[in-house]
Amino acid sequence: MRTTIANRFDESLTAIQTHARQVADEQNRLSSGTKLLRASDSPIAVGRSVDLRTSSAHLDSLKRLQAAATNRMAEAESAMQDAARILDDFHQLYASTQNGSLGSDQLRLFATQARALQEELRQTLTRTDAGGYRLFDSNSLLVMIGGGSNNVDPISVDTVGAIVDLRVLNSDLGPNWLGDVESLDEAIDQITIAPNSLIAKFVESLISGTRPVVPNEEFKTASQTMVLQRIAVGANQARVERATERADDVQLATQTALSAEVDTDYASSSMEVQKAKALLEAAQTITAQIGSMNLFQKLG
């Protein structure tokens, strides 16, 4: 079939438009860094990229929660260590007062130290983290450290200490004593400064010059509860560290997959630009040649 000059001219104009668009698209890909300029470029890739971006956003949120849990638990663990040390100091102070050679005047000398320990323990139990959350609470403060997507149930850990077992410092408190107080501060007062608390009685005994009585080594028992809580927090910290490592690995894989889907391959795109420019120049040359032909050349 014979191709007419008019057909060749139309084809060359179409080629100019096609290759000009290819040059513009590749240059846009190079400047924007993404190879998906329109959804029609690759609907499947666009769909996958949306899923990957959603997963990446979830991982970003999860890592922020993990960082918050790590920081709060580090502060809570430090507070538990301080509380255990203070209670140990109370136990040692009690042991010192049991020296039978000490008289009333000598016992009164211990009162200042006992009052200082009393106030230090109260301040420790009311300590907050940088975000204003209490490091000791009557309820747990759960933070999600894993799961929550792809049909995986959320995984949470407690990030604060508990004061419920410190009821050994007040014999009037029952197993459900926290339900009888109106606030956390009131609960802490019940075990540190309330008149019927062991610590308050201990301090008052020393002030009056009488030998204090700690019948069942309650200070030692309370210190051990803090040590056990530190162990539990340490186990949760290890869980958070492992969850953080897994989240980092998954996020790296997600970002790599997303990059493969949407990011421009600069080497390939640069070659495509040069190829499209060469084809564009060829089409422009053909068009110019056809446009410069005279009538006899067109008929011949």
How would you characterize this protein structure?
- Helices cover 66% and strands 4% of the residues.
- It is mainly alpha-helical.
- Strands 1-4 form a two-stranded parallel ribbon.
Main CATH class of the largest domain: Mainly Alpha
Counting DSSP H or I runs of 4 or more residues, the number of helices is: 9
Inertia-based shape = rod-shaped
Radius of gyration: 38 Å
Mean pLDDT: 83
Number of strands: 4
Assigned CATH superfamily of the largest domain: f41 fragment of flagellin, N-terminal domain
Helix content: 55-70%
Main sheet: which strands, in order across? 1-4
**CATH fold category name of the largest domain:** f41 fragment of flagellin, N-terminal domain
Count of distinct structural domains = 2
Structure class: mainly alpha
Name the features.
mainly alpha; f41 fragment of flagellin, N-terminal domain; two-stranded parallel sheet; two-stranded antiparallel sheet; 4 strands; 66% helix; rod-shaped
What would you say about this model in short?
By secondary structure, this protein is mostly helical. It has helices at residues 5-32, 43-97, 104-108, 111-125, 184-192, 198-207, 218-262, 266-292, 295-299, and strands spanning 136-137, 142-146, 155-158, 161-162.
